[in-house]
UniProtKB/TrEMBL annotation:
InterPro entries: Palmitoyltrfase_DHHC (IPR001594), PFA4/ZDH16/20/ERF2-like (IPR039859). The keyword Disulfide bond does not apply. Pfam families: DHHC. The keyword Cell cycle does not apply. Its EC number is 2.3.1.225. The chain crosses the membrane at residues 21-41, 61-81, 180-207, 219-241. Residues 134-259 form the Palmitoyltransferase DHHC domain. Belongs to the DHHC palmitoyltransferase family. This is S-acyltransferase. The lineage of its organism: Eukaryota, Viridiplantae, Streptophyta, Embryophyta, Tracheophyta. It catalyses: L-cysteinyl-[protein] + hexadecanoyl-CoA = S-hexadecanoyl-L-cysteinyl-[protein] + CoA. It comes from Acorus calamus. GO terms for cellular component: membrane. One of its GO terms (molecular function) is protein-cysteine S-palmitoyltransferase activity. Keywords: Acyltransferase, Membrane, Transferase, Transmembrane, Transmembrane helix.
């Protein structure tokens, strides 16, 4: 039994190491798909159609496709690299939890209170005591964990409001970049859908008896781009629907699994407030990877350390 447990731990370690090793390979893969798509849509099909000016209608369609394609591509890449380059949120070195909220004390623990709290959480964690739900302790990082914080074995650290580790962005998705990840999914779905629809007539032409203009290389690129974008559009749609439901309930992928037997969730404050905790209150910033200074100043949830909750469910903690 011990040997199988050790083997399992070793397999998990190797898996996490392999994910770290992917690194820039996944970024290059994403950029490769973007490059193939760009070549098929712009270089091979619609820019030549715009230049030819065969008819006013065809030129207008080509112009509209190129404008929408480039706008969505810009937003997609902006959102993507925002997820890649933004730290998802780490526990501050001097972070200390608040005193028991039931006593009405919200000042950070200090001195002997802090040391005794750490020792108490370490002991309860060691013996598997499930009753200590106020403060959690990470034995891998040797530090206390804020609410909704989880340890990522791939990153090797605790992540604030961790949702999951995404190999496509080579980063964890957490409190500080979750909005950017959702926008990346959103613009990816729109972009791949536009590409699929714009290349559909060219794809159908492959199965007709008429002669298809273009070189073998350009035809193969068009065929490949259509198949790739159709596949990504359908798969991303599923992820997007899932994450929309998570945002509506103010939960993460990890929390949804952990609380699957819990009928009520302490952080579920209603769909509008749940949405604002991810996207902010300023509507001008809802569709761009960023926040207004006012939202960052007056909404602690955007910083990943404090979250408003329902008073009657404050005993819950994950």
């Amino acid at each position: 039994m011990h040997r199988s447990g050790a083997a399992m731990a070793w397999n998990v370690f190797k898996f996490c190491t392999a994910l770290r090793g992917l690194g820039s390979i996944m970024i290059l893969l994403v950029l490769g798909v973007v490059g193939v798509t760009y070549y098929a849509v712009v270089v091979t099909n619609y820019f030549p159609a715009l230049q030819s000016g065969a008819s006013f209608e065809s030129s207008l369609v080509a112009l509209l496709v190129l404008l929408v394609f480039h706008c969505l591509l810009a937003m997609l890449l902006w959102s993507y690299f925002s997820v890649v380059l933004t730290d998802p949120g780490s526990v501050p070195p001097n972070w200390r939890p608040s005193v028991d909220e039931e006593r009405g004390e919200t000042e950070p623990l200090a001195g002997s209170e802090y040391n005794s709290a750490v020792m108490g959480v370490q002991q309860s964690t060691a013996i598997g005591d499930p009753t200590n739900t106020r403060v959690r302790y990470c034995r891998k990082c040797n530090q206390l964990k804020p609410p909704r914080c989880h340890h990522c074995s791939v990153c090797g650290r605790c992540i604030l409001k961790m949702d999951h580790h995404c190999v496509w962005v080579v980063n964890c998705v957490g409190a500080l970049n979750y909005k950017y990840f959702l926008l990346f999914l959103f613009y990816t779905f729109l972009e791949t859908t536009v590409v699929t629809l714009s290349l559909l007539p060219h794809f159908i032409a492959f199965f007709t008896d008429g002669e298809i203009p273009g070189t073998p290389g350009s035809l193969a690129t068009t065929f490949l781009a259509f198949v790739l974008n159709l596949a990504f559009s359908l798969s991303v749609l599923g992820f997007l629907i899932m994450h929309i439901s998570l945002v509506a309930g103010n939960t993460t992928t990890i929390e949804a699994y952990e609380k699957k037997t819990t009928p009520k969730w302490r952080y579920d404050l209603g769909r509008r407030k749940n949405f604002e905790q991810v996207f902010g209150t300023d509507k001008k910033y809802w569709f761009i990877p960023g926040y207004s200074e006012e939202d960052l100043r007056r909404m602690p949830a955007l910083q990943g350390l404090e979250y408003p909750s329902k008073p009657d469910l404050d005993s819950q903690e994950f």
